[in-house]
Amino acid sequence: MSDKLKQIINKQGEQQNAETLDQSDNIVQLVGFVIGEEEYAVPILAIQEIIKPFTWTRCPQVPPYVLGVFNLRGSVIPLIDLRVKFGLKSKNHNDETRFFVLKQGDEVAGFVIDRLTAAIRIKRENIGPAPDTINGDDTMIDGVGKQEDRIITILKVDKLLERDF
Amino acid sequence: MDEFQEILQDFLVESFELVEKLDEDLVELENTPEDLELLNGIFRVAHTVKGASSFLNFDVLTHLTHHMEDVLNKARHGELIITPDIMDVILESIDLMKALLNIIRDTSADAGIDVSACVARLDKVAGGSGEVESPVSDAPVPEAEAIVEEAPAAEDDLDYDNMDPDELEAEIEKLLNQRQEEDKAKRAAKIEAGESVPEAPPAPDEEAEEPKAEAAPAPTPAAPTPPPAAVKTEAPSDDAKAAAPAKRAPAAVEQTIRVDVKRLDHLMNLIGELVLAKNRLIKINDDVEERYEGEEFLEELNQVVSIVSLVTTDLQIAVMKTRMLPIGKVFNKFPRMIRDLTRELNKKIELEIDGEETELDKSIVEEIGDPLVHIIRNSCDHGIETPDVRLAAGKVETGTISLTAFNEGNQIVIQIDDDGKGLDVEILKDKALKNGIISEKEADSMSDKEAFGLIMRPGFSTAAAVTNVSGRGVGMDVVKTNIEKVNGIIDIESEVGQGSSIKLKIPLTLAIIQALLVGVQEEHYAIPLSSVLETVRISKDEIYTVEGRSVMRLRDDVLSLVHIGDIFEVERILDASEHAYVVVLGLGTSKLGLIVDTLVGQEEIVIKSLGDYLKGIEGIAGATIRGDGGVTLICDVVALMDMAKGVKATAMIEDSAGAGGSNEKTKASDYTIMIVDDSKTDRTIMRKALEPLGVTLVEAGDGQEALNVLKTGDHNFDAMLIDIEMPRMDGYSLATEIKKYNRYKNLPLIAVTSRTGKSDRMRGVESGMVEYITKPYSADYLSSVVQRNVNFKSEFL
Predict the structure, then answer these.
(1) pLDDT tens digit sequence for B100-123
(2) What band does B156 get if pLDDT is binned at 50, 70 and 90?
């Protein structure tokens, strides 16, 4: 019985390995979301979790786009409104609003986004650099992904998590 | 190699512990040179360090300690009287020993420090008396042990004197090797003995074994040829010696294990989580109770919740205790320091220590060492007078500094008293004025307590000259910074000629604290309870505005106020009620009243960091998670006090002033101001100062007249300038009378007077004056004060 089980598990493992090997090099996995009218994306591995909005505590002496801090299972995490950060007017949270918790190293922060779109697999060759006009070290844009009918702006996670005030 | 590192670590930990105790013992020894028990203890320390260091091949350290041991051994056998001069040499050698230990800790080798000078001096001390006295003492001391011990010592001395450094080193090397072998042999013998000794503790406990290790090899260096038999004959005497100090410090024989501080920190973090969960559980329990009142299962739930909360609290206290160190760790170094200082300053000072067993969190113990050093140095240098001055003042020649530690609720209090010359308030103010630390006005209105607080300001020093000991004006500033860092409070009391007393009140621990939760609008903030002196409920009438800042009267003091909403940029949407709460914060020597809307209660909170993204926000020390899962920010009281200085009078008062109902001003003459002064000249001066504004001016010759004018209601006054000294009715009574009228409740009353005393200002504030202008004043100043108070529109200028 257990031998059989092992066999099956091994088989499945092989299959999965084969699949990932197929794609690993050329495919970038992203999660897309919408802020205002634009679609953005961040690498899937940078996302710790995506949660529905809940209460947060306002924090004084910070720029308007920092809404405050919230409790994520015992950790106190800053909450940033990407609408305000991108120069749009903030709007009330609705059913589609989500908190995106991004993590890189020890840095963790939550970001408010308007709507999730989908997990995106995109070929590396389909990602172009950020437009020259906004290139440079300061830009938050990592690149622009092209898919059949749309363009997705891929954001730099480290820039998002960087304190800039 | 790892094994070596492990042994090295143990050696260092043990050595540092021993050396720490050594300082204290040595100073005590100087006072009671005949205390054999003490001497034996000290000898054993030197010996233990020597034994271990030779085993680990730290030659320089071994060399040094060996010679220390020689001197101490002579003293131990009564051949050498410990004089202050000899003690200086011994203390110097101990300093070197410490330095060597530090180097070993950092580099794992004991190179880099030249001990030869000190060793030579030690030799002189030991050798000098050795040569003179040994023939005499040989005869009366029949013990074989003593003779055997002295002979090599004397030999060594002679050799060293005639040797050049190279030979000396070689000789030392030879002796060391020899000794190391002896030690090894001893050790082997000891292990055998240890195994056969029936009363040896069965558990392989480190501490329990250490005293044995110390005691057994003690005779090793004494006998040049160590027959195993010698150990046995001498062992009993050593055991007896070891037992004696054990009575003095029973803590030494308690069973302990050393634990990495990181593990304790981790444990503390876990407990923190548990406390949060407990808070949450209590909250849920309350909710459930409300909803299912009368249900049977509630009883059971209640019991479980209360047990969990009880055990959590106990657990927290227990873990906290594992991090506690006796404050004696810090106090230990002071007898030595005082001794050095007395010799340096030519003063006679005695140090009394009490409560050294009081325990504090490790991290705090580390923080308070420096402040205490500075305070005590200060007391020695500035507090205690020289013996002749003391005699002239009718005091005992020897000054006393007492260092006391005790628990007081959730705090530990460290009190440093001296019976020196005390702090002279006038001199302090004078100095501060000259150094430009305070302005003349501040100096006048300063209370004694505030004046004492001046010594904590950076750059302040009363010392005429900068000495080795103090006078740079840095030390007490360090005290303030460090104490505030651990949320402590400094309280200074002093009486000229009688001495001064400094109290440091420090919370017991840092990670989990008691906090007062306050509410403003819909937000909550947590204030560390250790910084809260009291809370007061006030009505809005009790808040006065002086020079654009809110103040209130709290018993005998004027307390400056700031609204928490102004500091934390809280939007005031809800209408505040007629009453407000003032949380009186105390930190160091300063106080501040924080106006809040509601007091939520006291809660145990766990401090969590805000992370890199939000760290360093002014006024916020961290955050905590509350029972309902929400996040509450914790106020940083130090920063809060700083920020309060920049905040102007609260909007709350402006609002109510607006409600006073003055009509819209359309031209400058719509503003009406009454001038009340009995002197025609003064009235004219004021008139001349205000006329350029174009405002309407009404004059009155005294309080009664002014009141009559008000009663008629012919004018709608925007402000009044009031002299204090007037016939019939003085300014204070007038102000009090005016405030009785609801209509004039918010009328700005500006005192214009030559009375500048603090009590006068206080009376002014009490009677409702908002500003206090002292004669003589410039026309511009008067005009600007009036403009500010009537909200004069700039377009009319």
Answers:
(1) 888 887 777 777 777 777 778 877
(2) very low
3-state secondary structure labels for all residues of B728-789: CCCHHHHHHHHHHCHHHCCCCEEEEECCCCHHHHHHHHHHCEEEEEECCCCHHHHHHHHHHH
Pairing of strands A38-43, A150-155: parallel
Return the amino acid letter for B358.
T
B297 has a chain A CB within 8 A of its CB: no
Check residues A136 and B748 and name the one with the higher pLDDT: B748
Interface contact A163-B620, CB threshold 8 A:
no
Residues 500-559 of B with CB under 8 A from A: 523
Q: Is the peptide bond before B221 cis (omega within 30 degrees of 0)?
A: no
Which among A58, A66, A107 has the least Cβ separation from residue B523? A58
Q: How many Cβ pairs within 8 Å bridge chains A and B?
A: 69
Of B455, B463, B428, the residue nearest B443 (C-alpha): B428
CB contact under 8 Å between A76 and B609, yes or no, is yes
Q: CA-nearest residue of chain B to A58?
A: B523
Return the SS3 of B647.
coil
What average pLDDT does range B150-170 have in this prediction? 51
pLDDT of residue B307: 92
Site from A48, A56, A76, A99 to mutate, B interface, most B CB atoms within 10 angstroms: A76
**Catalytic (active-site) positions of B:** 47, 69, 378
In angstroms, the Cα distances linking B111 to B104, B106, B521 are 8, 11, 65
SS3 of residue A104 by DSSP: strand
Q: What is the mean pLDDT of residues B227-242?
A: 41
Pairing of strands B411-418, B557-563: unpaired
List, for residues B175-226, the tens digit of each pLDDT value: 667 766 666 665 555 555 444 444 444 444 444 444 444 444 444 444 444 4
Average pLDDT rounded to a whole number, residues B43-49 = 76
ipTM rounded to 2 decimals: 0.77
Residues B393-396: contacts with CB under 8 Å, at least 24 apart:
B393/B497, B395/B419
Q: How far apart are the first and last CA of chain B?
A: 86
- Give B564's Cβ-side CA count (13 Å radius): 31
| Residues B613, A71: C-beta atoms closer than 8 Å | no
Q: Among partner residues A55, A61, A74, which is closest to B630 by beta-carbon distance?
A: A55
Contact at CB, A66 and B614, closer than 8 angstroms: yes
Q: Which tens digit of pLDDT belongs to each residue from B525-563?
A: 999 888 888 998 888 778 887 777 788 888 878 888 888
CB–CB of A161 and B613 under 8 A? yes
The answer to whether B61 and B97 have CB atoms below 8 angstroms apart is yes
The pair of three-digit structure tokens given for residue B597, joined into one six-digit string: 């809307």
d(C-alpha B309, C-alpha B313), whole Å: 6
CA-nearest residue to B610 within chain A is A76
CB contact under 8 A, B620 and A76: no
Beta bridge partners of B623: B608, B633
Which among A61, A107, A161 is the nearest to B619, CB-wise? A61
Q: Are B652 and B563 in contact (CB under 8 A)?
A: yes
**Alpha-carbon radius of gyration of chain B:** 36
Q: What is the pLDDT of residues B336-374, one digit of tens each?
A: 888 888 888 888 888 888 888 888 888 788 888 888 888
Output the pTM of the full model: 0.48
- Residue B638 DSSP SS3: helix
Closest alpha carbon within chain A to B632: A57
Instruction: Indicate yes or no: CB of B617 within 8 angstroms of CB of A163.
Output: no
pLDDT over threshold 80, residue B625: yes
Instruction: Determine the distance from the C-alpha atom of residue B601 to the mean position of all C-alpha atoms in its chain, rounded to a whole number.
Output: 28
B482-496 confidence digits (pLDDT tens): 887 777 778 888 888
